[in-house]
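Annual report, structural modelling task.

Input specification for the pyridoxal-5'-phosphate complex:
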Amino acid sequence: MISASQALYEKAKRLIPGGTQLLSKRPEMFAPENWPAYYREAQGCEVIDLDGNRLLDMSIMGIGTCLLGYNDPDVSSAVIRRIKAGSMSSLNNPEEVELAEALLEIHPWAEQVRYSRTGGEAMAIAVRIARAKTRRSIVAFCGYHGWHDWYLAANLSSKDSGGQLQGHLLPGLEPNGVPDGLSGTALPFRYNHLDELEAIILQHPDQLAAVVMEPTRHDEPAPGFLEGVRKLCDQTQTVLVVDEITAGWRLHHGGAHLKYGLQPDIAVFGKALGNGHPIAAVIGKGKVMEAAQYSFISSSYWTEGVGPAAALATLNKLKSVDVPRHLTTISERLRAGLGDLAKRLGLNIRFSGHPAITILSFEDPQASALQTLFTIRMLEQGILAGSGFYASLAHREEHVERFLKASGKVLPEVARSAEIGDVLERIPNGVKHSGFSRLT
Ligand SMILES: Cc1ncc(COP(=O)(O)O)c(C=O)c1O
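The model returned the following structure:
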């Protein structure tokens, strides 16, 4: 019998092009026709789907937004308070000033703050400010930074073979609809490849508005890499923008740039800042941020009150608990336990990235199919599990134990099917997608 969730998703695919609003939440990214598309309730690290199944979330935790866990009581109370007092009016909400002070206290290198509600939007603001400040157009970047034109423009010049974003976080993103005139304005370099950034600068002397990058995503910075980037930006008067949308607060309180002693000109936060409520912040040095006054950067819902109220409550909690340490402990326990299980079964599982942003992959020619089978069988055990694990403060030792116990039941079949080579027969609804592709 088709589940309520699957039935709704079938309807969604007719009504909503692409099915969902976020590629990473497409059920096809996990297990086509098996992964429950919708939830009714979310609490701590559990969700209840539309069919009433209670599922332990050992997957992407709202794609890294809910660092404290779903529906954190302190954050929810602050949000409800703001809603009851009215979250929108003709006047501005005072929390945005309080939040600016809180963010600047954590980041003494920065002097001013602007807000938006989503990460991609905030990155577009940061790039606009950098371009306005320098009166230059070209942006050198590495990694993924959202859906906006400034970024997808990188794929205009080489649409074949995954475009220029090949080798970055989300390769092959389609730039259809991005004006051809932006071609050549976003140029990628690879993380830890300072020579590639140097080559961009040599080819475009005095034309770089910004260097945009995460201080780290999966790899530790090579000795001298971040210092080298900073130096190149100083030499060329280029604005250094660090994207802390995913890494920020997860790896280090205030962001990974503080951990590595990197002083940017702008830092951008999103996702975990509101613990599930939309708020993003662009913070920066006064002499750079002031350019926001000379470019039109303005939007109605950047003034609502829920986002700042949520962020203040989140920051308050993050200040009192060592969340990065908790995430590492939980993720390392999971890695060790699952690694041992796999080893005993002769299954090659690889973990990569920082423990707090764990990536799990099967080392096998049929890796995606094995991953799909693992996800389907874990769902049968009441667990959401995919190719990554974003730990949260709500995850406790007992949740890891539950995950490992279920894996102990599921992995022998995965190992057997890897050995026999019959995995495709075990997943009749097909292999999970691994990137952007058309659904209908
Ligand atoms: C590093 C980074 N930058 C930007 C974004 C885009 O943020 P949003 O999905 O909120 O637009 C993401 C989202 O995954 C991200 O990981």
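Residues 88-304 form a domain with the Aspartate Aminotransferase; domain 2 fold (CATH 3.40.640.10).
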